[in-house]
């Protein structure tokens, strides 16, 4: 492990760099349990046990970006979960800055980043709540397909920055993401979720479109009419009824 990784970052961050690791999220959780303060970043060049959402494997060969950030926001788990929108915007900005056509890069509810409709980045939040109901910590893991991507996925088709003609150094991408993150995190602390929601909506796919939402026990079809003030997806069913979706997988109906 080395420290710093040659990144020029604000003092908020403390970066540990690994050539290989099981999962950067596991290491960041270990640091959290050790009592480390927020701003710890674990960055590894590859992962042997990369974890995705819903217990999926996150393919983690050398050349892509794998990092986890330890945060200790003073809020409860519901407000903390909205950090995933903030992270998605920070990543979207970092990735869009590398592409010729920035508008090819979008966010998809709740927190994927897409290039031309294909998934280039995933976010995994893991948190622990204290006895008083506030968050003890949140670990935000982000994986970005920079040079390669899995051909077969059990969700959205994947892509990489390289496939779209972008060849950023990992240091440049990580540093841009962390700078963007800190700016948004300060905004979130001062003004709450509203400005983050606005930035997310400006970059989102599917608003006003017909979508399919896969829930754990059923699949719904309707129009993605808006994101509510808490980050829930508002789905307008054909019956006119509006449903609030807080967890599920979204597919845009072509
Ligand atoms: C998803 O399924 O979309 C989320 C993928 C999150 C992958 C990242 S890679 C860095 C961090 N370490 C992990 O084991 N997972 C996250």
Structure description:
This protein is globular. The protein is built from five helices and 13 strands. With 254 residues, it is α+β, with helices and mostly antiparallel strands. The strands form two sheets. Strands 1-2-3-4-8-7-6-5 form an eight-stranded mixed β-sheet, with helices on both faces. It has a five-stranded antiparallel β-sheet with strand order 12-11-10-9-13, with no helix packed on it. 24% of the residues lie in helices and 32% in strands. Bound molecules: biotin. Biotin binds next to helix 1, strand 4, strand 7 and strand 8.
Features:
13 strands; alpha+beta; binds biotin; 254 residues; five-stranded antiparallel beta sheet
Assembly context of the chains: single chain
What Rg do the Cα atoms give? Answer: 18 Å
Distance between the termini: 46 Å
Number of helices: 5
Overall mean pLDDT: 95
Judged by helices, strands and strand pairing, the structural class is alpha+beta
Give helix % range.
10-25%
> Strand tally, please?
13
Give the SSE layout.
Layout lengths: L1 E2 L10 E8 L2 H10 L6 E8 L17 E7 L5 H5 L1 H14 L8 E4 L3 E4 L2 E12 L5 E10 L25 H22 L2 H9 L7 E5 L4 E9 L5 E4 L5 E4 L3 E4 L2
Parallel strand pairs: 2-3
Antiparallel strand pairs: 1-2, 3-4, 4-8, 5-6, 6-7, 7-8, 9-10, 9-13, 10-11, 11-12
Helix pairs in contact: 3-4, 3-5
Bound molecules: biotin.
Biotin binds next to α1, β4, β7 and β8.
Short description:
With 254 residues, this protein is α+β, with helices and mostly antiparallel strands.
